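User: I've been trying to design a sequence by hand for this structure and keep getting stuck. Would you show me what you'd pick, starting by listing the structure so we're on the same page?

Assistant: Good idea, let's start from the same input. This is the structure you sent:
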């Protein structure tokens, strides 16, 4: 039984690989909801949808979000009226948000609606939002932002995560991140149990600061993972100092961390005994060991589903190696 702490694209690709090597009925994904946003009155859950659509084989492969074979008629109408058009909701994708919003309005929890959506795609794994309660990731701009037309903002302004990520193309430096609502939130039913009862807990290759951190910010989650540290494996989203997708590398630097696998190790060392890193980071193995984690070298770029499957297999195998050795030698897999 495997539990995966997940953000969006990187986690979704990892989970797709995991589903190829483990019975999907034995997998639980605990997914970030800090990216959730209400637009046009609709509740949008980008990371939950990215995970679901990817595992269903329905994701748009180029964008990495939203559905394949999408059309944009509704957005064109919104644009005609001068409505909010910077966040692109495809016509098919809109159906998901309509359904979710309607069900939430009826009093269903986000976890219940998510289970309904996941079931409708014939997926056997369990997908849980980290919390049923609203959590909003907000970032503070380090500098004045006068780049974005009609929307200049002074330095120190705090904005919603999607206004940073999508509206400003995550191109502006940030000086702080916080997860509004997290401290009063509760883990969704099953979240703590999934961490406590799993043979292995995997921290997916997602942005540590804005995808994994909001999950850890739900009271009880971080503590539950720390208690399982020996059986927790983190997969570095940073390869040779860069993030394959998104602003994780820049954000690490901007927020005072090192944009490297060592920076990742320092963020995860209390949570996970093992860190999966790419062969490109072999030179950092001793440094990772020095931070108190066991490094495992692997081909970590999930360029194909087969690559994702071998990364997933190496990751769950790494969790079940014998007692940690004290030797600073990395485990080397599938070179
Ligand atoms: N990302 C973009 O860069 N531009 C968009 O217009 C956009 C729309 C969108 C709609 C639904 C959805 O589920 C995701 C969407 N994303 C979009 C992706 C998403 O906002 C981010 O990739 C994640 O929040 C970061 O994990």
């Amino acid at each position: 039984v495997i539990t995966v702490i997940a953000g969006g694209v990187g986690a979704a690709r990892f989970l797709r690989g995991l589903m190829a090597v483990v019975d999907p009925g034995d997998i639980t994904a605990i997914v970030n909801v800090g990216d959730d946003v209400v637009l046009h009155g609709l509740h949008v859950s980008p990371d939950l949808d990215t995970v679901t659509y990817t595992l269903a084989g329905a994701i748009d492969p180029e964008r990495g979000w939203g559905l394949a074979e999408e059309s944009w008629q509704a957005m064109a109408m919104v644009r005609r009226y001068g409505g909010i058009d910077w966040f692109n909701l495809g016509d098919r994708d809109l159906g998901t948000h309509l359904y979710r919003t309607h069900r939430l309005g009826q009093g269903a929890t986000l976890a219940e609606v998510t289970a309904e959506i996941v079931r409708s795609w014939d997926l056997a794994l369990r997908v849980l939002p980290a919390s049923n309660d609203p959590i909003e990731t907000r970032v503070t701009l380090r500098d004045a932002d006068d780049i974005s037309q009609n929307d200049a903002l002074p330095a120190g302004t705090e904005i919603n995560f999607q206004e940073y990520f999508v509206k400003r193309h995550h191109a502006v430096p940030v000086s702080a991140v916080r997860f509004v609502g997290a401290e009063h939130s509760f883990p969704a039913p099953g979240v703590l149990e999934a961490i406590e009862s799993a043979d292995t807990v995997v921290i997916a290759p997602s942005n540590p600061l804005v995808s994994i951190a909001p999950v850890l910010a739900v009271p009880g989650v971080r503590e539950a993972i720390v208690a399982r540290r020996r059986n927790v494996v983190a997969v570095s989203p940073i390869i040779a100092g860069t993030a394959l997708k998104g602003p994780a590398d820049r954000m690490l630097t901007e927020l005072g961390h090192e944009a490297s696998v060592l920076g990742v190790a320092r963020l995860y060392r209390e949570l996970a005994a093992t860190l999966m890193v790419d062969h490109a980071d072999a030179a950092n193995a001793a440094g990772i060991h020095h931070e108190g984690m066991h490094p495992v070298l692997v081909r970590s770029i999930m360029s194909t589903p087969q690559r994702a499957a071998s990364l997933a297999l190496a990751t769950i195998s790494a969790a079940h190696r014998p007692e940690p050795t004290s030797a600073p030698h990395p485990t080397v897999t599938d070179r």
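That's my pick for every position. To get oriented when you compare it with your attempt: The longest strand covers residues 174-180. The mean pLDDT is 95.
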